[in-house]
Amino acid sequence: MKISKLVFVFSMMAVLLLGGCAKNDVQNSSEKKTKELADDPSGFVVITDVVPDAILEIRYYSTYNFIGSRIDGYLEPTALLTRQAADSLRAVSDELLQQGYRLKIFDAYRPQCAVDHFVQWGKDLNDTLMKQYFYPDLDKAVLFDQGYIARRSGHSRGSTVDLTLFDMTSEREVDMGGTFDWFGVESHPDFGGNPETAEYQKGKRITEEQFQHRMILRKAMLKHGFKPYDEEWWHFTLANEPYPDTYFRFPVQNLSR
Question: Which residues pair with 216 in a beta bridge?
Fold first, then answer.
């Protein structure tokens, strides 16, 4: 067999071993100087192994998400985080349990190939299958410019989590006045009030109760080392994340295998 053919075969085997997560990775020279792509999951844990009370609803493993199909790299309906982020999330969970809430996780670690999937979908302006559910007021063409779709995500560094509250008394997800992955200003933490003071502002399409629910989650997350994101009330990143410049590619699946 010629050397060129051997190189091709080994390259394809590497792609398969990564669960398809390396097939779309393209870096320019400037990115290589400042960003690192990695495949080692040894610093990660399954969230429910550390936070046993957490409820998982992994939207990107399902078809109920803004694309409408399972996202590349999600091989199982589980959630992963770096050990440091998971330990901090356990402290959040323990505190909120005393207030009658459990954490409900929508997404955590996100492999780079999933982000690539988002980008490819964003370029196809004819694919608007889930528009009515997640971005009815926006033209899909603005999703890149307004920051809803990007080629890099903090999720791929492994210390970011998307979550909400679950009320143990009513046995329902808490009403936050908006859904996860809603593309619009309604998702901003300051929609309805000042998140720094938790002061509600009348006149917005969100009730004071809904706004305060957001503040309960935010307060607990910030207390235990997470920082918020200005565009999404559900999105938090560990402030002292262990891999601030590394983007991982291994798929989302049970790490015990």
Answer: none
Q: Work out whether strand 160-167 and strand 232-238 pair parallel, antiparallel, or are unpaired.
A: antiparallel
What is the reported pLDDT for 159?
98
What pTM was computed for the model?
A: 0.89
74 domain residue, yes or no: yes
Classify residue 155: in a domain, yes or no. yes
CA distance 243 to 155: 11
Q: Which residues is 163 bridged to in the sheet?
A: 105
Residue 57 lies in a domain: yes
Task: Say which CATH number the domain at 46 has.
Answer: 3.30.1380.10
Query: What is the C-alpha radius of gyration for the chain, rounded to an integer number of angstroms?
Result: 19
Cβ 193 vs Cβ 127: under 8 Å:
no
Q: Catalytic: 231?
A: no
Question: Does residue 96 or residue 205 have the better pLDDT?
Answer: 96
CB 160 within 8 A of CB 237: yes
Residue 66 in tokens: 């803004």
Catalytic residue among 173, 199, 232, 241: 232
Q: What pLDDT is attached to residue 256?
A: 80
